[in-house]
# Entry
Amino acid sequence: MQIQAILDALTLDIRRSGPVRGDWPNYSRLGDGVHHCHLKKGHPTYVAVWQEKDGKIRLVEFIYVGTHEKAPY
# Structure
């Protein structure tokens, strides 16, 4: 499966059920409103990092999608 398709599935899950995604591989909270999970294991491992944004409209912004080695955590 391509990374984009997996990211699309994660985006849909976040839209439906919110930013806390304990049902995704290696999910964890990284800090105040910041979350991450693995999109693809192996070499290279791909991860997504997203942040909740406050406001009238509930917004989640992906701040990084890429290889594990360059992830900002």
About this structure: Helices lie at 3-17. The mean pLDDT is 88. Residues 34 and 51 are 4 Å apart (CA to CA).
